[in-house]
Amino acid sequence: KMAAPAGAGAAAGLWSEVNRCGQNGDFSRALKSINKILQINKDDVTALQCKVVCLIQNGNFKEALGLINTHTKVLTSDLIAFEKAYCEYRLNRIESALKTIQSASQQTDKLKELYGQVLYRLERYDDCLAAYRDLIRNSQDEYEEERKTNLSAVVAAQSTWEKVVPEDLGLQEATYELCYNSACALIGQGKLNEAMKKLQKAEELCRQSLSEDSDVTEEDIEAELAIIHGQMAYIMQLQGRTEDALQLYNQIIKLKPTDVGLLAVIANNIITINKDQNVFDSKKKVKLTNAEGVEHKLSKKQLQAIEFNKALLAMYTNQADQCRKLSASLQSQSPEHLLPVLIQAAQLCREKQHAKAVGLLQDFADQHPANAAEIKLTMAQLKIAQGSVTKACMILRSIEELQHKPGMVSALVTMYSHEEDIDSAIEVFTQAIQWYQQYQARTNRGCCVFQPKSPVHLSLIREAANFKLKHGRKKEAISDLDELWKQNPKDVHTLAQLISAYSLVDPEKAKVLSKHLPSSDTMSLKVDVDALENSHGATYVRKKAGKLTGDNQQKEQGQGEVKKKKKKKKGKLPKNYDPKVTPDPERWLPMRERSYYRGRKKGKKKDQVGKGTQGSTTTGSSELDASRTASSPPTSPRPGSGAAVSATSNVIPPRHQKPAGAPATKKKQQQKKKKGAKGGW
Question: What residue spans carry the Basic and acidic residues bias annotation (predicted)?
Answer without folding.
Answer: 575-596
